[in-house]
TrEMBL record:
UniProt subcellular location: Nucleus, Nucleolus; Nucleus, Nucleoplasm
Region annotation (Disordered) ranges: 43-65, 383-409
Species in which this protein is naturally found: Monopterus albus (Swamp eel)
Cellular component annotations (GO), alphabetically ordered: nucleolus; nucleoplasm
Keyword Nucleus set for record: yes
Main localization category: nucleus
Keywords from the UniProt entry: Nucleus, Ribosome biogenesis
Nucleus as UniProt keyword: yes
Descriptive protein name: Ribosome biogenesis protein NOP53
Function: May play a role in ribosome biogenesis.
Superkingdom of origin organism: Eukaryota
Length: 480
């Protein structure tokens, strides 16, 4: 126990002595660092930090610690200095020449002695200096702007370069392109010399020019004007044609007047009668086509036969089997035909060559005989031409007749309106008792359809989405 207490006292004395030595060393470092000639090796300016701070142990293997525990102030200062030199001088000072940085000061230049003769002093115009606002807005950096890469790019540059190389190769061989040939073949434009003196207005030979006209006076190559867009493309003649030759307003027949002549009225009635008869015939034709023949109607006997058909065994099974055997034998005989000999092949070849020679001789004989038939051939050709001309006339007449007919423009066909005609007992002697018929709007609508300006249409059918629901209200029940 006594030995242990002695050891503890010795250890405490030893630690106190070590602390006093370390404190004296720190005090010595602090005094040395405060001296004016001391060179600081670290970036910190506080001398107390040199003594008190300890070195931090950092793992430099990790990338996140590189910027955090690395001193890059010297690099940033250097880069900032380089940027400042580029902004102010347009480049690094070390790369500038001496003449651009220095100049030789030789004093003010001596003025030439003025002559004794008095000279009138001229007022010197003050040089107009830029405004202060303009100076502020000016670009104060000498660094050139970055190159715009998009401004130097061309669409299809590779294709254009390849075409130019091919044109150079053809030019080296002496081949002229097709477009160049067309330009060389075109006639040179006669250059019109400008008149020095304008013509008088009262000159009778002066060319007339309408300043309000639509046509422009173009004195140039038509092809060049068309390609450059200075001359409009010629409008095709077919676009100027009307869709129908019918007039916009058709005049009714004389029999449609309020007080018509008896013959013209009867002619109009006959025309209306023919239209109605034609409609009736079409309806009768449809009824006949849809009519059912009583002889073709099914009876109980025919229905029973149809149900029993295929159930009764056929009696001629043996005959069919016998016929099938005969057919098999015939087919087998054809398949097992004998092979032709060399002599038979030669004989067939000679017969075939002889037949070809006979046909060739017959063809030559026919051609020689045609020489003696020139007159009849000419007559037949003339008759054929007459038939062709007659067919052309018929075709043209048919086309002209079709121009007056409405074309099929849409899903529906054009339905001609009914003739507006009054019977003999309905005629009125005066306009006061005249009964109006038809509608002006419907007449114009049908006229547009007939002249192929609009397609035939039908009135849209209203289809109710939901069924009507009748509800008996309380007030109605109270009244009843």
């Amino acid at each position: 126990m006594h030995h242990r207490l002695a050891c503890n006292k010795h250890h405490q004395k030893k630690t106190k002595k070590k602390k006093r030595i370390m404190a004296a060393a720190r005090r010595l470092k602090r005094v040395i660092a405060s001296q004016p000639g001391f060179l600081n090796l670290k970036s910190t300016s506080d001398p107390a930090d040199l003594v008190s701070s300890r070195r931090k142990r950092v793992n430099k293997n990790k990338k996140k610690n590189w910027n955090k525990h690395s001193d890059i102030n010297d690099v940033e200062e250097f880069l900032e200095d380089v940027r400042l030199q580029e902004r102010t001088t347009g480049g690094l000072l070390s790369e500038k020449s001496d003449d651009s940085l220095f100049f030789l000061d030789i004093g003010q230049p001596k003025k030439t002695e003025e002559t004794a003769e008095p000279v009138e002093r001229k007022r010197k115009k003050k040089a107009s200096r830029p405004l202060r606002i303009d100076l502020i807005l000016q670009h104060d950096s000498l660094v050139p702007p970055p190159k715009d890469v998009l401004a130097y790019q061309q669409p299809n540059a590779k294709k254009i370069r390849r075409i130019a190389q091919k044109a150079e190769q053809l030019a080296a061989k002496g081949v002229v392109p097709r477009r160049q040939k067309q330009l060389l073949k075109r006639r040179p434009v006669a250059k019109t010399t400008k008149k020095a003196v304008t013509e008088a207005n009262n000159n009778p030979d002066r060319e007339y020019y309408d300043i309000w006209g639509l046509e422009t006076k173009d004195s140039g190559d038509p092809w060049y004007l068309q390609q450059t867009g200075k001359k409009l493309v010629k409008r095709p003649e077919r676009l100027n044609e009307k869709p129908s030759v019918l007039p916009a307003v058709e005049v009714i027949a004389p029999g449609g007047s309020y007080n018509p002549d008896i013959f013209s009225h009867q002619a109009l009635l006959q025309e209306a009668h023919e239209v109605e008869v034609k409609k009736q015939k079409e309806e009768d034709k449809i009824e006949r086509q849809l009519a059912v023949n009583k002889a073709d109607t099914a009876t109980e006997e025919t229905i029973f036969r149809e149900q029993v058909e295929g159930l009764v065994e056929e009696e001629n099974e043996e005959e069919t089997v016998h016929n099938e055997d005969e057919e098999d034998v015939a087919v087998g005989g054809i398949a097992l035909g004998e092979k032709k000999t060399e002599r038979q092949r030669k004989r067939e070849k000679a017969v075939r060559i002889k037949e070809q020679q006979r046909l060739a001789e017959r063809r030559q004989t026919g051609q020689r005989q045609q020489l003696f038939q020139l007159r009849s051939i000419k007559v037949s050709i003339r008759q054929q031409e007459q038939k062709t001309k007659a067919k052309q006339k018929q075709r043209k007449a048919k086309q002209e007749a079709q121009k007056a007919q409405p074309r099929r423009l849409g899903r529906l066909k054009f339905q001609a309106p009914d003739l507006e005609v009054q019977l003999s007992d309905e005629l009125a002697g005066t306009l006061r008792r005249l009964k109006p018929e038809g509608s002006v709007a419907k007449d114009r609508f049908k006229s547009l359809q007939k002249r192929n300006l609009i397609e035939p249409r039908e009135r849209a059918k209203f289809k109710r989405r939901y069924k009507l629901k009748y509800v008996e209200k309380r007030a109605f029940r109270e009244i009843t």
